[in-house]
Every structure is written in C-alpha cells, then in structure tokens.
From TrEMBL:
<dbReference type="GO" id="GO:0042884">
    <property type="term" value="P:microcin transport"/>
</dbReference>
<dbReference type="InterPro" id="IPR030678">
    <property type="entry name" value="Peptide/Ni-bd"/>
</dbReference>
<dbReference type="GO" id="GO:0030288">
    <property type="term" value="C:outer membrane-bounded periplasmic space"/>
</dbReference>
<dbReference type="GO" id="GO:0043190">
    <property type="term" value="C:ATP-binding cassette (ABC) transporter complex"/>
</dbReference>
<protein>
    <submittedName>
        <fullName>Microcin C transport system substrate-binding protein</fullName>
    </submittedName>
</protein>
<feature type="signal peptide">
    <location>
        <begin position="1"/>
        <end position="29"/>
    </location>
</feature>
<keyword id="KW-0732">Signal</keyword>
<dbReference type="InterPro" id="IPR000914">
    <property type="entry name" value="SBP_5_dom"/>
</dbReference>
<dbReference type="GO" id="GO:1904680">
    <property type="term" value="F:peptide transmembrane transporter activity"/>
</dbReference>
<feature type="domain" description="Solute-binding protein family 5">
    <location>
        <begin position="106"/>
        <end position="514"/>
    </location>
</feature>
<dbReference type="GO" id="GO:0015833">
    <property type="term" value="P:peptide transport"/>
</dbReference>
<dbReference type="Pfam" id="PF00496">
    <property type="entry name" value="SBP_bac_5"/>
</dbReference>
<dbReference type="InterPro" id="IPR039424">
    <property type="entry name" value="SBP_5"/>
</dbReference>
Length: 619
C-alpha cells in the first residue's frame, strides 16, 4: 500500500553550537545565530564532534544493493513529472541535516549556521559553508539556493508549491548568505522545511527545461554521483572521493559504501526471489506472512541472512483504504461510516498476519500526537468554535473515546455487518431482490478498488467479501505502476490503498494531506478529497503552533476530526520496521531512535567474501 512522497531530498545526518543573540534580544528573545535548528527541544549534539550513532572510523568500500519496483524515467524528482528514480537523495546536499535521534532538530550541512528568530521567523538567513562544492568542483553559492527555491515555487510539482506557499521571497545577500522572507512570522517549521531541500546548480540548469523528465541526473553536491544506468532496470551510484562534506560532523562515519545500487523488479514478490539468490543485499520486509514463514531458505539456514526487527519512536505510517469523497455515494459520511464496519481487522490479524500487527486507531499512532480518550480541556478550547457548525456524526466522533469496531475474529463479522446494514437503512439505502445495495437514485452500488501491488488482493478480499454481504460490489483492479500513479495523480479512482507517512513534527505537509486546496490540486495527497472548514482551520493552527505543547494539542484535534469524518479506513501497522540483510554489514554499537541509520553502516570485508562465494556457488 504505497503512495510515495518524493517532495524533496532529505539528508539524514547532523552538527555543533555557535550561539549569539543580536541586539534585538535585549528587548525580546528574537534574532539569534545558531548552528542548528530545533523545534522546542534542545539540540543534544550541538557540541558533538561525531554523532553517537556513527562510527567515525568506519572503513569505506563495498556495495549495498536495494530493490525497487516498477520503473523510472526522471532524475528530477521535484517537478512532478514521470516516475522518479530511486536513490536521487544521495546526489544532493541540503542546507542542514536531520538528527536521527531528535525530532525536529537539524545540524549544519551546506549551511554552517542560520540567523533567525526561532519563535517568530519572519526571515531566516542561512550562512553557507564556503567549502561547499558541487560534484564537478564548482562552488555552491547563495545564487544556487535562490535558483532552487524559485524553481520549486514556480515550476515544482503542485504539492511542492503548496508546501512552500509561505515563502514570499528568496534573496542572495552575499556570495554565501541567502535570505528567506516569509509571508507570516508564525510558521516555526518553515526554516526546518527549507533546510531539508536538496540544492541544484543554477549553472547546470542553464538552457534546460525544469519541467521535463530527464534521465541525466542534475548536478548535485551530495556524497554520491551516478555511475551507471540501465534504462528502467537498475541504477548504480558511486561514492564521490572528492565529496566536499566528508568532514562535516553529520557525515563523519556516514556514506561508507563505495557503491549503492537499485535493482528494479515488477513487484515486491518477484524482488524477494531475487533477494534469496543475492541479486540485492538489503531487503525491507512489509509482509507479516513472509516475515514469519518464508525465511527458511538455504542462506538463512546457513546463517548468511540476518533478520532485524528495528523498534522506532516514530508515528506508524498510516496504512489505509482511501475513500474518494469526490464520488457518489462516498460523499455521504453515513455511507462511509457503514462501509468502515466491513473491515474485519481481528480476523485478518489472526488468519493472515500471524498476530504481528495492531489496528491503527489514529493517524499518528505510536506517538504522543495520537488523540486518546475524550478531548482534553485544551483540545476542547480548539474545537469549541467549530462545534455548532459541525456535522452531527463528526461532532459525536470527536467528543467520544475513539475505537474502531471490533469483531470476534471468527471471519463472519456478523454483528458489525448487521450494524452497518441498519445504518444504511436509516439513511434511505435499499436492497433489491438480487441483494444489491441501491444508491438514492435506485442504482446498484459498485466500486473499483485501484491497486498496483501483486499480492495485495489477499489482504483486501476479506473487506471485499464483507462489503458484498452488505450488497456493495467492489472490484479489485490491479494496474501497472505508471498507470496507477497517473490515475491517483488525477484522483481517477473510487477506492485505493495508500500509506501516509507521519513525523513527530507535523507541519506544512498536513495541508497537502487534508486541506480543501489540496483536494482540488492535481497530483496532491488529499486522496479522499477532504473539504472541511474545521480541518482547514486546525491544519493552519497546527502549522503555526508557537510551541510543542500547542503543536501536540492541535495535532490531536486534527486526528479527531479526520477519524470522525470517515475519509479513510485505517487498517494495520506496527511500531517497528523489519529488515533482512545478507550478513556482510556492520553497524555502530548504538542505533538511532528514529531511523535504522543504514547510511552509517559499513561492509565487513571478510564476511562479504564469504557471502560472495556462497552467491557465486548458487548461480
């Protein structure tokens, strides 16, 4: 279930403290120059020489290989065209780099420091590291940063333009200083968002059309460059030995592989067969059945495959079935509510998932952002202005302790389906002699559930069967990846599956997920077509939250509104990530808290030889 968000390239690394208060701070806590960005938390590693989850002495060498599905035709991943290539994030550095231990904290990369008011950022001046260079050796300057953002704001994908809508202007005030001016001073997250964007070369783009797909990678300043492309089948990146940023604190002990390769497969099921034979060496597992039952092949038995269950502290990605409310009768909240009763998680977890998953009860599950119990007094204060105009069903949902219907795991789901049928009857839906549920115009209700992944039918068919018991015909339609992306981009579906990734610091991306503006923008992520004034208002409050406490409160209120609107049927997830790797890698003694940190791993040369001998012997 994956609709991937590829808005910008985020560098995962981190750096040190250089603080000074300007004269404005004499009157109020205002403009400061800092060598980190932090959203209401301390920057624990501001004075560090190396990150605690990195090994500064890690050896360089070897190759790591990942799978990818479908195909690719575009190395410009931000113009919203074509199918972006995997791994493009390795080509570009961003202004700062995310801490893998601390939510909402970034340390220097291209920018050595920032001058701004952390509480009320009307402007932000990034001071670039004069050592920064593109991979061809040319200097990276403020003009390149200005060029990148002006392209994003005018020719980037529609979702990106919404994401950066609070930027009023970008100016190069000197060769190495770039100033961002914002439309408001209340969006504390904007400097952090800006810091995450991969920077392009202005010179490299001269005479080129930014809006076109390209299989020639634009010039970047990151740790890798493109080595070899086999059209639609594989991409190899090689480590740049002259990488300018190898000694920056966040990069010490990182990017140790000489090469990173992506091998493309038609599906994840086919890819796994390739993993068994060593066609690629690092596999992320998404299927409970496979995780529990299929790691019994010869390489596992010989101890050459290592399984890793990495428990993180992030919100669980929101896996769901999106109900496109642009279509009838999905625009009826009562119909959507009734349809949600057809989803029988308890039986699926027992029969299909080997008890490995939990039912998602929140869009921010596994975190403090999840709305639990009844609304707190702080949440009620936020909700109060909207309660009078709120749909009665939404009002009931936001005010109660939320829990999706629970079945007896027998596989019949009898009680919940009876409840759903009563709901539909109460709203005027009727069933004809053939057992078909009729809409209010007397037509049988029939939907298409659009997917692109092989094997997904297995987890969807129980829902399809239960819907049929209600008289609703759902046809699962599997298409290839390009067709799927094009149809989703234009909201040409009734039901589809998706995954909405969330972070511990929700911000501008929430407007892309839920706002009325995003519902009308082609290529955005409001798949359900949500148009709700209360949601719009709370998203704005969330984005402009002045402190962590209010951010949490606003996010919980948003969570309540989304659940009570029945726009998505939340399905299942887990607070961990499953990895299987050929046993040729080493990693630092301490793992980061928010990410497995593969960029800090390295090759064990002796183990790699053993693995290679085995793989060659099998071929």
């Amino acid at each position: 279930m994956a609709v991937r968000l590829k808005i910008f390239q985020v560098s995962y690394v981190a750096c040190g403290l250089l603080l000074y208060a300007s004269s404005a701070s004499l009157t109020q806590a205002a403009v400061q120059t800092l060598n980190y960005i932090s959203l209401d938390t301390n920057a624990a590693y501001a004075n560090a020489k190396v990150l605690p989850y990195a090994n500064a002495n890690a050896p360089k060498g070897g190759i790591i290989t990942y799978p990818a599905t479908g195909t690719f035709d575009n190395f410009n991943s931000v113009n919203g065209k074509g199918t972006p290539a995997e791994g493009v994030q390795y080509l570009y550095d961003s202004l700062m780099s995310s801490s893998l231990d601390e939510p909402g904290v970034m340390y220097p990369l291209l920018a050595k420091s920032i001058t701004y008011d952390p509480q009320h950022p009307k402007t932000a001046v990034f001071h670039l590291d004069a050592r920064a260079k593109f991979s061809d050796g040319s200097a990276l300057t403020a003009e390149d940063v200005v060029f990148t953002f002006k392209k994003l704001l005018t020719e980037g994908a529609p979702g990106i333009r919404i994401y950066f809508a609070d930027i009023e202007d970008v100016q190069a005030t000197s060769k190495y200083d770039v100033k961002f001016i914002f439309k408001s001073k209340d969006n504390k997250e904007m400097p952090l968002i800006i810091s995450s964007v991969g920077i392009y070369s202005k010179k490299d783009w001269q005479g080129k059309d930014f809006t076109k797909v390209t299989l020639k990678a634009p010039l970047g300043s990151g740790p890798y460059v493109v080595d070899r492309i086999e059209g639609g089948r594989s991409i190899i990146y090689k480590r740049n030995p002259n990488y300018w940023g190898k000694d920056v604190m966040v990069n010490k002990g990182a990017y140790n592989f000489d090469r990173i390769k992506y091998v493309y497969y038609r599906s994840l099921d086919i890819a796994f067969e390739g993993f068994k034979t060593g066609q690629y060496t690092a596999h992320t597992e998404y299927t409970a059945r496979r995780w529990v039952t299929e790691y019994d092949f010869n390489a596992v038995k010989r101890g050459l495959i290592k399984k890793i269950d990495f428990h993180h502290q992030n919100p669980i990605p929101t896996q769901n079935i999106a109900l496109n409310s642009r279509k009838k009768p999905l625009n009826d909240i009562y119909f959507r509510q009734a349809l949600s009763y057809a989803y029988d998680f308890e039986w699926m977890n027992k029969a299909l998932f080997y008890g490995q998953y939990q039912r998602l009860q929140s869009f921010f599950d596994n975190s403090e952002l999840e709305a639990k119990g009844k609304p707190s007094s702080a949440e009620l204060t936020v909700l109060q202005p909207y309660l009078k105009s709120m749909h009665p069903l939404v009002k009931h949902g936001v005010m109660r302790e939320w829990k999706y219907p629970v079945s007896d795991a027998s596989g019949f789901n009898r009680f919940n389906l009876l409840v759903a049928r009563k709901m539909l009857q109460n709203q005027g839906y009727k069933v004809n002699q053939k057992g078909q549920l009729l809409d209010k115009q007397g037509k049988p209700i029939r939907f298409e559930l659009l997917i692109h992944q092989d094997g997904l039918q297995r987890t969807l068919m129980p829902f399809v069967r239960n819907a049929k018991k209600l008289g609703i015909q759902i046809d699962v339609r599997q298409v290839d990846v390009p067709q799927y992306l094009e149809r989703v981009r234009n909201y040409d579906f009734e039901l589809t599956t998706s995954i909405l990734p969330q972070s511990l610091n929700p911000g501008n991306e929430q407007a892309q997920f839920w706002s009325s503006a995003a519902a009308d923008a082609v290529g955005n992520y409001n798949l359900a077509g949500i148009k709700n004034p209360a949601v719009d208002a709370v998203v704005e409050r969330l984005i402009r939250s002045p402190n962590r406490e209010q951010l949490v409160t606003n996010t919980r209120v948003l969570d309540r509104l989304l659940r009570a609107g029945y726009y998505y049927i939340l399905s299942y997830g887990k607070g961990s990530e499953w990895y299987a790797v050929w046993d040729m890698f080493e990693q630092p003694k301490r793992s980061p808290k928010l990410n497995v940190g593969l960029q800090y791993w390295w090759i064990n040369a002796e183990k790699a030889k053993t693995v290679q001998r085995y793989i060659q012997g099998q071929s």
